Amino acid sequence: MPGSLVTTPPELLEQIVLSATRDAQRGPPAALRSILLTCRMSYNALSADANPHLYLMLFVDKFDVSAPRRNIAIDRLALPNLDQELKKRFTALHCFRRGNVDDPQLLEAFATAYVMMLEDDGLNWGQLLWAEFPSFMEKFLRERLLSGAADNDGWPVENEINALAVALFWLISSSATVSNETEELRKEFMDMLCPFAFAGFRYPCFTSPEYEFYPSNQDAAKISVTSVHGVYPPVRPVAIEMVYFGESVLFHIPPIAPYAILAYFARSERRPLAIPPHLPVNRLDAILQGREGPTQDDLIYFNARCKTHFALTPYKDSFDVLMKSRRHDPDWRRSIRNPIYCSPSSPQVLYIPGTLTGSWGGSFIAPYHEAYRAMLTTPVAPSPFPHFGRFPLYVTFRELYCYTPSLPASFAEDAGSFTEAFLPAGCQWREHEAGIEIYNHNTSFKAYYHPPREGHVNQQLVDGVPGGSNSSSYGVSDVIITGVTARPQTETRHAEAWGGYKYIGRIRPTDGLIVLLRVPLDPAMIELGRALFRGYVISSRNFVGRWRHVSNGVQPADWEAIFSLCKDTPLP
């Protein structure tokens, strides 16, 4: 009897479908849809209810699964849930491919794409390219990002869709895409991003108020004030419900400001800092001339090495030996917070140990005080929005851990503690090779923090499981970060060029926010000022945020600068 589709065994039909879809790996399984429509027999053999194994294989062929396996319970990866997730992702991809920036499904599609980028090990990005997602994002930014600004005193709106759009715009950026932008398009993007980047009084950098070490579960801040721009801290989109592998979860919207700052810096850096010919050629020349400050050599070094790192680019560092998605695990956990992992007493699930340790270089952009004050006191957005100059910024960081049974430094739940970067008011510290001792002369309080135990950092990087499986990673109750401008391998080169500072601060356990107090290395130079740096490490690549003069964080800053730091890596 001649063979026919009707007499073909279901197992063979499954192999035919898989073979056909693997020939066209990007995009939905068109061959499956065609076979399902041929007859009832093929539909009964290949539907999700009848053949869940087929949909498991399709999902594994089309999308990355390493990150979901790390971050969610294994029973969530059951076959029916995979079928739902498969359909949801292709619905989002079709939304982008249609090119309609007013599509009513766009918010869910953006949330899906954001999770796909955080879970990307190659396959997810390939599917987004099939959907022509980069072109869609450019179209969205140019046609819709500023919608509503005219009715908001000229200020763009930080809603759920805009926040995800700017975050995605950064995540899909690369050196090539930025280089290929025309000068006009690059300026257009920078103009769009400027308000989100600089106006901290409207667009906070933080998932919850910066002065709260243990933020409440309420949407409203514990303390708020009002200004000409409304309530501060501003009310921003917090979370939406989304279905993720068959379960309804709260998806926490990332703040728009850190991603706007990164995208802005990446474009600012296309124009290197000018090298004035009157500067000394190098440090020796400066010494011979009796001059202080930067040299031509310092500026050449800065232009060559201190550039914002793109999430998609390999940099020959420790994270490049990992799957790409591993870099995004802290960002993933900020958005989809699994209560099994996110203990309020431990910061390590929102921070990969070893991330900050090492030498970092980058820049900050400081608005003119008069221009910033005018923005702060006037409800209407400036038009055009001003742009400002960049300044080099260097620091070498060190991570120190409090392991149980030692007790961490105390913390007072009030806004005033923010002025000390979440450290006890009036405390002092002694740092040495074996760690740091934090103490207060007026009390019997002392706390000890140590460098990572042997195997702690490496185990975290290899396992990719919150808490790791090595006993060295257990019992971390707090993380202290210290820093200094001078780098050991260059002695005092950067301090001599750009000023010397030391840093100390803490990681907020609920979201991985890093708050650092910066003070001059030389006590006689206290006029340089104390400052608070606050921000996140995004994609384990860039430490990004804002810095302000010391305050309690309750009032909007009188003046604030933005910064982007990246870990020093070998030159290509």
Structure description:
It is built from 20 helices and 15 strands. It is α+β, with helices and mostly antiparallel strands. It has a domain at 271-306. A hairpin with a 6-residue loop joins strand 11 and strand 12. Helix 1 runs parallel beside helix 4 (52-62) and helix 12 (183-198) packs antiparallel against helix 13. The longest helix has 20 residues, at 79-98. The termini are far apart.
Arrangement of strands in the largest sheet: 5-6-10-11-12-13-14-15
In angstroms, what separates the terminal alpha carbons?
65 Å
**Morphology:** globular
Radius of gyration: 26 Å
Query: What structural class do the secondary elements suggest?
Result: alpha+beta
**Number of beta-strand segments:** 15
What portion of the residues fall into strands of 2 or more residues? 15-25%
Helical content (DSSP H or I, runs of 4+): 25-40%
> If you average the pLDDT, what whole number results?
83
* Oligomeric description of these chains: single chain
**Biggest sheet architecture:** 8 strands, antiparallel, barrel
Number of contiguous helices: 20
- List unreliable stretches of 5+ residues: 340-347, 459-473, 487-491
